[in-house]
Write a structure and sequence with these properties.
7-stranded mixed beta sheet; alpha/beta; 11 strands; 4-stranded antiparallel beta sheet; disordered C terminus; single chain
Amino acid sequence: MITSIITVNNLNKTFKDQIALKDVNVDFERGKIHGIIGRNGSGKTVLMKCICGLMSPTSGEINVCGKRVGKDVDFPPEIGFIIETPGFLPNYSALKNLIYLASIRKKIAKDDVIKTINTVGLDPYLKKHVGKYSMGMRQRLGIAQAIMENPDILILDEPMNGLDNRGVKDIKDLLRNLRAEGKTILLASHHMEDITELCDTVCKMNAGMLERADGNGTESFQND
């Protein structure tokens, strides 16, 4: 029996006369990595923002862990995400940034933050301000922010951006480990290598519509 952790029903989003999402229907199964591919402007990021509660759909509904987004819950607490460029306080260190963000929901302690920064390959005790970080370092810190509260679901929009080859390998290994722990991951990437190596299913967005590869709206990829 397939257990869907995210269900999207008849989702539409328009901006004035522009259609961003059109009649999107898809279920995302728990404990898998689901790839979303498509050109810039195809609707990938808008779909992810709607699932996170960062953007309200024009019509349709999204259910996360059995709760309707925008009705039962505004921002599903089960979700950690990195969408577009991560934003941090530029004059703070990585540790100070994440401790500040962790203080909002008070779900984790300083030791958890330190452990997470180590997990993504950064030095939690580095005094360097985030404003002086390279793009790759900022991207690693963004991923740390997404995973630090141990969410059940990760929504990652182009998480490999700015990473060198070592960074890409590190993050791929991290995502595989998170899937092994039972996490559900939505991954958007322009690089088909990322998708084919990591994803169990793939959806293609095209002009706001989800192109279905089979009856479930997804195409399966086998991973070793």
